[in-house]
């Protein structure tokens, strides 16, 4: 099956991260994917295996190197009629997060529909734990105007409960995580590659955040931990704020490490290695869930403040079965990290395998795995309507 996946990079890396994971997962399951993206810069570190080459018969650049996946420039779909006269729309057209495929490409979808073999048009929506997701998942929306007049698109909502589209989870992901988690030598090798060498009692924290995160407060509290803590700071806001904090605290026992931007599979493995993960946005939030470690999520802030409602909905689902005291303590940190409450003075216990936060995170992750993953559901979703 041929999939056309359209992705606009609005800001940050989440849009590209989700679309690339979906494309890779489809490709590894034997499908063919054309990923049309308006800004492919993030793939230089997110997917360094991609190499660009000019197609001799098209004279256009195509990114290859990942099984089953071609990366294409959005502009080429915009100019599809003059530049790609032989281009046909795929069996499935996925517009990620309502990005609207170019009209020239939709015209190709019309040609296919007129031949009696219409493409499945899917709007892959943003992730949310709110109740409307289950009500909206799978709904159809006829197109009444513009280039798509007469076609129909359907909404596919990722989610955390039955009746939603699930979460991205590659077939071998949990087995790979388990293998690394159970091997101290594999973990040590992964960390050594980043120049990190731990002693037996050292703890490891990863910070990936937006500019509004209270990194100073976090580092102040981590510096008071009984054991030595290594803090991995991702490029950008986390690294710059960490460096500024360190300049004021030269005598600290904290060990701050500025890590490079990593390919997705290496980033996932790093989450598995850490004792506490602070992550941001949609893509890394889901990967933190599968890591099964204590974590704190910084949601993308929206001007109208609706992110607070979305954060509350997710906390309620993720922590539903947790002991009340633990849920209260962890939610206080999540709220504070998102600027929605005061910063607690002490983190809930997080650095021991039998710490309540660790046990609850593991249990919640296992429960979530009972849900069919997003790619499997999406394949079934389009197959059942073809």
Q: Characterize the largest beta sheet: strand count, sense, and whether it forms a barrel.
A: 9 strands, mixed
Helical residue percent? 25-40%
Total count of strands: 14
Q: So what's the CATH class of the largest domain?
A: Alpha Beta
Percent of residues in β-strands: 15-25%
Strand arrangement in the largest pleated sheet: 3-4-5-2-1-6-7-9-8
Describe the structure in your own words.
This protein folds into two domains: 178 residues, Rossmann fold; 196 residues, Rossmann fold (3-Layer(aba) Sandwich). The chain has a nine-stranded mixed β-sheet with strand order 3-4-5-2-1-6-7-9-8. A five-stranded parallel β-sheet has the order 12-11-10-13-14, with helices on both faces. 40% of the residues lie in helices and 18% in strands. With 386 residues, the chain is α/β, with parallel strands linked by helices. The longest helix has 15 residues. α11 crosses α12.
Topology:
Layout: E1 2-7, H1 14-28, E2 32-37, H2 43-46, E3 51-54, E4 61-66, E5 69-73, H3 74-78, H4 80-83, E6 92-96, H5 103-114, E7 120-124, H6 132-136, E8 140-142, E9 152-156, H7 173-181, H8 184-192, E10 203-207, H9 215-222, E11 229-233, H10 237-248, E12 255-258, H11 264-273, E13 276-280, H12 281-291, E14 295-298, H13 306-318, H14 324-337, H15 356-368, H16 374-383
Parallel strand pairs: 1-2, 1-6, 2-5, 6-7, 7-9, 10-11, 10-13, 11-12, 13-14
Antiparallel strand pairs: 3-4, 4-5, 8-9
Describe this structure in a few short sentences.
Helix content is 40%, strand content 18%. The chain has helices spanning 14-28, 43-46, 74-78, 80-83, 103-114, 132-136, 173-181, 184-192, 215-222, 237-248, 264-273, 281-291, 306-318, 324-337, 356-368, 374-383, and strands at 2-7, 32-37, 51-54, 61-66, 69-73, 92-96, 120-124, 140-142, 152-156, 203-207, 229-233, 255-258, 276-280, 295-298.
